[in-house]
Each structure stands twice: as C-alpha cells, then as structure tokens.
Write a structure and sequence with these properties.
The structure holds two protein chains of two kinds.
Chain A (H helix, E strand, L loop, with lengths): L1 H16 L1 H27 L12 H30 L5 H26 L12 H24 L13
Helix pairs in contact in A: 2-3, 2-4, 4-5
Chain B lengths: L2 H9 L1 H25 L9 H18 L2 H6 L3 H21 L2 H8 L2 H12 L1 H6 L2 H17 L2 H5 L3 H22 L11 H24 L7 H33 L8
Helix pairs in contact in B: 1-2, 2-3, 2-6, 3-5, 5-11, 5-13, 6-7, 9-11, 9-12, 12-13
Classes of the chains: A mainly alpha, B mainly alpha.
Chain lengths: ~170, ~260
C-alpha cells in the first residue's frame, strides 16, 4: 500500500514538472482544432465562409495567412507533445483539456472579432441579419475561454492531480 | 522563341532526352544503394529510400515533360499541378531519399572528404539557411506570379527552363534546410526551423489567396481561382509532410533516457 502511494506521489510530481508542457500542448491543439473545424465545416461543408472576400484588407490577408500556417503546424506539434508527455508518464488530461478550451476559444474569438470584423476577411455567413451568427460565434468562444480558465485555475495545485490528495 | 516551340520541348525529342536522363539517374541511385549495401561495415540502404527517390524523380519528370507539362503552358490549373509536383512534392521525396548520404557512402574516402569539406564551407552554410532558402523559394514564387515573368516564361524558352530549374532547386534546398536527413554541419534548433517554416507556409498561403483575387497577366478569373485554391490546399498537404517529419525528428531526439535517470 505504501509502495503504491509513493509511486503515485512521484508521478504527480512529474506531472507538475511538466505542467507547462501540458498547458502549451493543449493550447496549441485547441488552436489547431478550432482552425481545422473552421476550415472543414464552415468553408468546405457548409460553404458559409468564403475563400477570399473582395473587402479583405491586406492586413487581413496576412493575418489569415499566418494564423492558418500557425494552426496547421500547431495541430501536428501538439500531438507530438502529447505523445512525448505520455511516454514520460507526465500527461495530465484535465489540465490539457482546460488548455484545449482556452486555445480553441481564443482562436475563435480572435477570428470572430479581429479577422471577421476589423480586417473583413469574410463573414460567418452571407445573410441579411448577421448579428445572431456573430453572437453565437463569439459567445461560444467566450464560454470556452471561461471554462478552460476555471479548469486551469483548479489544476494549479498538486492535490488536484488525482482525486484530492491531502497536504 | 514561340509558345509552340516550348510546348514541343515538353513532348518532342528533348522530352525523350530528359526521360532517358531521369531513368539513368534512378538506375544510378539504385545501383549505388545496392552496391554500398554490400559493404560489411555499412548498414543496408533502407528500401523506402529507393521508392522515395524514384517517386521524386517521376514527379519532377512528369511536371516538365509529357501531357501535364504540355497543358500547363495554356492551362493555369495544370500549371499549378506541375508547380506542386516540381517545386514541392518532388523535393520532399528526394530529401527523404538522402542522396548526399548515399553519395558519401559510395565515394572513396578521399573524394568523400572533398564533399564533406564542401558541405562545411561558408557558401554551403548560407545556401542551407532556412531563411535564405525560404526567400529563394517563396520569394521566387511571388516574383513569378506578381510580375510579367509569368507570361514571359511562356514565350521565351530560356526563361521557361530557368524558371523550372529554379523552382525545383529552390524547393529542394528549402526542404533540406528544414528537415535534416542528409548530414548538415551547421544545425539550427527545432524551434528556429519551426518558426521559419510557419513564416514560409504563411507566405505561400497568402500568395495563393492573392492569385485568387489578382490573376496573373493572361490568366482568366475562373482559372486563377481554381489554381489559387489548388495551390493553397495542395501546398498545405505537402507541407504537412515537412511538419510531421520535423516534429517526428524532435520527438525521437528528445527521447527521455530512463536508464540514465
């Protein structure tokens, strides 16, 4: 019994030591997944988004290009980071999920406010009344960021790692 | 030189010479791989490298000779297909096949030392720096599609050949400067190469969308849109190979050594 305890303590220490890597892997994966869903669902399946909008500013084109490239890279990089954490027995799923929510929400909020509105890359859907779409889009982004922040806050201390170990 | 003469190059007698040349290179590579594998002190040359090299040469060849190359002269979508094959897919496949390593294995030590000292030289260091190779590769594409070079390429044979040689060579050094499979004396960190790769990927994507909105001279709106989209998504797909290899090399290299811990 004592042996099991001490091994789980050292595992928890390990997860704490790789806390930053868990968080960054989650954020990168969240950004990648949000961008991938944006591309596959809204561009390819629904055809709501347009590939190129005549009103796009040059800054918008550049911003879109960098975000697309970064998210494409980070999806792959995040998966390799998770594989690395797993082989070190340092993968911390709850913390990772919290970070995924922050990454996905952060990307969606940036996309919905700065890229859609400020830089006019394209709109969510080309309809008369865009407001409900914008509200759902950015509202869900804010919810994801809030949920992710709560999870990250709750997983700051070691007792949160596996079922509330005392002291 | 006229447009028709250049089309002839892609299908006529010079096409025959080029295909024989491509075949000879593949035979040379396979021969070198097999004969160097006979040495008892060397490991057998991996089978996947033979496949990768052959496919790489095939991709490069069908983009400059044969039906795709001939259609690329007047059809922008086909031009983009050949661009993806010659400038991106062929180079990545050839880098995976590690031709420099094979050369070093096959040469006598005295000559191999000349090659390694060339690799260590200052010019080689410059030409294998990812920022330089990105500028040559993606910068070259920006010049090609935003100036009159694109239409010039279809009327002047010399320009046509030079542009194709540049696209292929720039694509190769770009891939080789990001994924280290052949020996690289001046190595840069994973994070450095990743950042440069993201920048190059972004510049490629931006150019694709720019072409979509601003067709090069002589290219119709519809064709520019199809070609731009093809460049964007096709480029993403081939860049994915580079991204995965770069990350995989990082993963292998940071392997935790439990035995020493």
């Amino acid at each position: 019994m004592a042996e099991i305890n001490s091994s789980s303590i050292s595992q928890n220490e390990k997860k704490l030591g790789y806390s930053f890597r868990n968080t960054s892997a989650g954020i990168l994966f969240g950004i990648g997944v949000a961008a991938f869903m944006d591309e596959s669902i809204f561009h390819q399946l629904l055809h709501w988004h347009h590939f190129y909008d005549k009103s796009t500013t040059n800054a918008g084109l550049v911003s879109d290009g960098f975000f697309h490239a970064f998210s494409w890279f980070s999806t792959v990089a995040a998966l390799f980071l998770v594989a690395d954490l797993r082989r070190r027995n340092a993968f911390w799923p709850i913390k990772w999920w919290g970070a995924v929510l922050i990454g996905a929400g952060g990307f969606q909020l940036y996309d919905g406010t700065i890229q859609h509105k400020l830089m006019q890359i394209h709109q969510i859907r080309y309809v008369e009344d865009l407001l409900p779409y914008d509200l759902v889009w950015n509202g869900s982004a804010v919810l994801m960021i809030m949920a992710g922040s709560i999870i990250l806050y709750k997983t700051q201390r070691r007792k949160s790692i596996s079922g509330g170990r005392k002291s | 030189m006229s447009h028709d003469q250049i089309v002839n190059v892609t299908t006529g007698l010079s096409a025959l010479f080029l295909s024989v040349g491509a075949l000879l290179i593949v035979i040379l590579y396979i021969g070198a791989g097999l004969s160097s594998s006979r040495h008892s002190r060397l490991k057998a040359w991996p089978w996947y490298r033979y496949i990768s090299f052959t496919l790489g040469i095939v991709c490069a060849a069908i983009s400059v000779i044969g039906p795709i190359a001939a259609q690329a002269m007047s059809n922008f979508t086909m031009h983009m297909v050949s661009h993806l094959l010659l400038g991106m897919l062929a180079p990545v496949l050839l880098v995976i096949s590690a031709p420099v390593t094979l050369l070093l294995r096959s040469l006598p030590v005295r000559h191999a030392k000349v090659v390694t000292s060339l690799l260590r030289s200052y010019p080689a260091r410059i030409i294998n720096h990812p920022i330089i190779t990105s500028l040559l590769n993606i910068g070259g594409l920006w010049i090609l599609y935003t100036t009159s070079l694109y239409s010039w390429m279809h009327t002047n044979l010399m320009v046509h050949i030079l542009v194709h040689v540049h696209i292929f060579a720039a694509g190769y050094i770009f891939s080789a400067s990001l994924i280290y499979i052949d020996p690289v004396p001046h190595r840069l960190s994973y994070i450095y190469r990743s950042i440069v790769l993201i920048g190059a990927l972004a510049a490629h994507g931006i150019l694709s969308k720019y072409i979509y909105g601003h067709p090069p001279a002589g290219v119709g709106v519809q064709e520019a849109q199809t070609g731009g989209k093809l460049m964007y998504y096709g480029g993403d797909f081939i860049d994915l190979i580079i991204i995965v290899l770069l990350c995989y090399h990082w993963y292998k290299n940071t392997h935790p050594n439990e035995a020493l811990a």
